[in-house]
Amino acid sequence: MLPHHAKKTAGQVKRKTLWARVVRAGALYLAGLLACGAALAETREFEMTIEDTRMTLVDKQDFHTFAFNGQVPGPLIHVKEGDDITVKVMNLTSLPHTIHWHGLLQRGTWQNDGVPGVTQEAIKPGEDFTYHFAAAPAGTMWYHCHVNVNEHVAMRGMWGPFIIDPREPTPLEKTVTRDFILMLSDWDGKWADKPGYGGVPGDVFNYFTINGKAYPETQPLRVKKGDVLRVRLIGAGELIHSIHIHGHVFKVAFKDGHALPAPYDADTIMVGPGERYDLIFEADNPGLWMVHDHVDSHTVNGEKPMGGIMSVIEYEEIDPKPALYEWKDKQFQPDFYYEQSLKLPYGLHTPALFKGTAIQ
């Protein structure tokens, strides 16, 4: 029989051995998780240009823009959380530019934040710059120029959506069947053909757009009863917009890409410059329902009423459309809200309907 102190020592050895096994198992589990995360993350390389491009906001109101890949809004960048992203940007205009990746944290990659005089020199005409960073955090993000933002962002169309899908979606977002992106912006027509100028105190904005178009050149949001809609609102311009959706109550589920701990009900939401809100709701009320800015002066085109930031939720169950319906004969253009592009494999997507005319 072992003496008492020997029994104690043997017990200690047994406990230490058991603890070592637990530690090893934990380390292996953690390594497995890290390996799994690394396996899920992918390397993605994109190229973008900045081009002098003429865009039509509505009717005959054109605007000289500095467009990413010749389109306004810019291409949709749609990736997964944690993906390794490289973007080569070529400046084909006569003015300097950068890209700021709005909402991305750039942990360990702060030099890629895209701010001239702080993280990089501006990209000079004819030159290029390559950004490299991790896609994090997840959510509705966007990108925009950070040179002379008062002009380049406020009224030259230098913005686009950057959507990062989460590793672990919330239960609410798992219910979504239709996904729409609405980038809200404002324009002062007197600067339309004067690149390098504008965006100064005293400007009077007189055109207001969703994804670069003013009503009636916007498109309907087409749905069917039972769909669960996610409407991603992005404040890409200078002004505050008060977005009201008729006939429905939505959950304000995400703010600036981050899930709210307690989503709340509303039918109107204020969207400020740079802000993002994700609204989620069920299409449970068939009809034709207006979506519009409740800052009423934002529903004009110049001095003409019934324009600006307006659209309609169209249920497919309403067929035929009423004779009085202004859009009853409208030629529908899918992907105006990137709803088709968001269904494509991850990558950089350039819907053809956003393309403008190159300015030589």
Write the topology of this structure.
Blueprint (H helix, E strand, L loop, with lengths): L3 H37 L2 E16 L2 E8 L7 E5 L3 E8 L8 E3 L25 E7 L4 E6 L4 H7 L3 E7 L12 E10 L19 E4 L10 E3 L4 E8 L5 E5 L4 E6 L2 E9 L1 E4 L4 E7 L5 E6 L6 E2 L2 E2 L4 E6 L31 E3 L7 E2 L2
Parallel strand pairs: 1-4, 3-8, 9-12, 11-21
Antiparallel strand pairs: 1-2, 1-23, 3-22, 4-6, 5-7, 7-8, 9-10, 12-17, 13-16, 13-18, 14-15, 14-17, 18-21, 19-20
Q: What do you see in this structure?
A:
By secondary structure, the chain is mostly beta strands. The protein has two domains: 40-165, Sandwich (Immunoglobulin-like), CATH 2.60.40.420; 173-337, Sandwich (Immunoglobulin-like), CATH 2.60.40.420. 12% of the residues lie in helices and 38% in strands. The protein has two helices and 23 strands. Strands 10-9-12-17-14-15 form a six-stranded mixed beta sheet, with no helix packed on it. A hairpin with a 2-residue loop joins strand 19 and strand 20 (304-305). The chain starts with a helix and ends with a strand.
